[in-house]
Amino acid sequence: MRQNSMKPDTAENIARYFADSQLPSQQEMLGQIVMEILRNGTALNRPAICAKLIRRLELADSSEEEQLCRTLIGLLFGREDAL
Fold first, then answer.
1. Of 50, 76, 35, which Cα lies nearest the Cα of 58?
2. CB pairs under 8 A, 24+ apart, for 43-48?
3. Which residue has the higher pLDDT, 42 or 2?
4. Is there a domain that residue 13 lies in?
5. Distances (CA, A) of 21 to 6, 24, 41, 64
6. Residue 42 sits in which domain range?
7. Torsion-angle region of 79 (φ positive above 0: left; ψ -120 to 50: alpha; else: beta)
8. CA-CA-CA-CA torsion sign (4, 8, 12, 13)
9. Cβ(23)–Cβ(65) under 8 Å?
10. How many C-beta atoms surround the C-beta of residue 18 within 10 A?
């Protein structure tokens, strides 16, 4: 029978990779927000998207998620410095 000979470094790297990849990309987050808005029957417009992004910003679990929301809000208003 073969023993699990994975090095601790490798296991940590794999765990870190999956932990880091849990945040959605900009496109995924916008897609989720658009789907929420459409499912609610609300008009899809900039204020509706912005309201959802602000709510996600308020509920963000990490600084990375906060930054993602801030970046998307900046993109909605054409602010290049938000990137």
1. 50
2. 46/76
3. 42
4. no
5. 21, 7, 31, 11
6. 28-82
7. beta
8. negative
9. yes
10. 8
